[in-house]
Write a structure and sequence with these properties.
single chain; about 200 residues; alpha+beta; 4 helices
Length: about 200
């Protein structure tokens, strides 16, 4: 028996006509099968079966609730983020393979980076020493005005020099933090390089 005839017999059994281009929709309502064209209103919020031309059946899930839509959107965002992270990890792994031939190469790159920061830190230390030496001289000059008003020019020099000392001290602290950050980054790269290449 053809699928069209099977559908016709099924629908006739339900008391429904089956026009040539009908789209009959059926769903379960209180344990009973309900069908119609157009779809019965009870079927709009339920899982349903649509019978199209030729008797082809198509299962249609119930519409998502607001909570389900929000959850599906969150899952999509999470999946996209995971895909992005995986792509970034792949890019970093390729860069490690292309940049180094052994873990020792990573150690050498780390030492060069640290040496460059230390070189800059030495220049900062020299500027700090100069500012502190200037501070001693300015304080000595200030002694001459213990009972007098400080000249505006001297006040300005003292203020500017104090700002210079503070700036260079902060810069030195940042250099120390930079060195630790570089060491940490190269440690991570070295560990990952060993994981993906098996080289120790």
């Amino acid at each position: 028996m053809s699928s069209r005839k099977s559908l016709a017999i099924f629908l006739l059994g339900l008391g429904l006509a089956a026009p040539a281009f009908a789209r009959i929709t059926c769903c379960e309502v209180d344990g009973k099968r309900t069908c119609g064209d157009p779809p019965p209103s009870q079927c709009l919020s339920r899982a349903k079966t649509e019978f199209t031309k030729g008797g082809v059946a198509k299962e249609v899930g119930a519409p998502l609730t607001a909570e389900q839509k929000a959850a599906r959107k969150a899952e999509g965002v999470l999946a996209a983020e995971e895909k992005k992270k995986a792509a970034e990890m792949g890019r970093r792994d390729r860069a490690l393979r292309d940049s180094y031939t052994s873990p020792q190469d990573i150690d050498k790159a780390r030492d060069r980076a640290v040496a460059e920061i230390e070189k800059n830190a030495e220049q900062t230390k020299n500027r700090l020493d100069a500012a502190q030496n200037k501070q001693v001289k300015l304080n000595q000059e200030k002694e001459f005005y213990q009972k007098k008003v400080l000249p505006a020019n001297l006040q300005s020099q003292i203020k500017d020099n104090e700002a210079e000392i503070a700036a260079q001290q902060k810069a030195l602290q940042q250099k120390d933090a930079d060195i630790e950050a570089v060491k940490s980054r190269f440690d991570v790269d070295k560990k990952r390089y060993s994981e993906i290449t098996g080289k120790k």
